[in-house]
Specification:
By secondary structure, the chain is α+β, with helices and mostly antiparallel strands. The chain is built from 5 helices and 9 strands; from the N terminus they run H-H-H-H-H-E-E-E-E-E-E-E-E-E.
């Protein structure tokens, strides 16, 4: 079995770059490249971590007849933090699905990175805080227990205009985070 080719196939199916996969697995881009070109072999632990971040597992990787996971616990979730924001992927296999749900926390007075126009739709539910949503030239505000929905065909980002962290359940379709 060509493990590298299968890893690359899963990575591309999940629309991840080598760098994005490496970041999620705390590996280097060069190591991912070596794996995909069968220049090195991963340890079992590394392969397990790769599969989790590619929305798969060892059993599914070696056998396609495994039931899909329905319930996800904290152990299945991946968290990435920056100075201004943190993202918690709520479904570890979301990259292979039609939608990708996350829990994001945006620090007071900061914004998410500007997302360039792309095909898709985005939905969010604000658990706490007050935000300003910019879609193209349009700006709207929303607060706790409000939801938002927009097509992703214009540049967009979210600013936390409140004094406290804004916490949002955010769903992108197709996966984009």
């Amino acid at each position: 079995m060509e493990i590298g080719a299968k890893i690359k196939e899963l990575r591309l199916k999940n629309r991840l770059t080598q760098e994005e996969l490496a970041d999620r697995c705390e590996l280097t881009k060069g190591y991912i490249s070596q794996l995909e070109n069968d220049l090195t072999s991963p340890s079992i632990n590394t392969l397990v971590d790769l599969m989790q971040n590619l929305g798969s597992n060892l059993a599914e990787f070696f056998n396609d007849e495994v039931d899909e996971q329905i319930v996800f616990s904290d152990q299945d979730m991946f968290i990435k933090e920056w100075d201004n924001q943190s993202i918690k992927w709520l479904v570890h296999s979301a990259q292979k699905n039609a939608m990708e749900p996350i829990l994001t926390t945006i620090k007071a007075g900061t914004s998410t990175d500007k997302d360039l126009p792309h095909d898709g739709e985005e939905f969010g539910y604000i658990l706490s805080g007050e935000i300003e949503i910019t879609v193209g030239k349009r700006k709207v505000t929303a607060g706790k227990e409000n939801s938002f929905y927009f097509r992703s065909n214009k540049a967009h980002f979210i600013s936390n205009i409140g004094k406290d962290d804004a916490v949002i359940i955010w769903v992108s379709c197709p996966p984009n985070f």
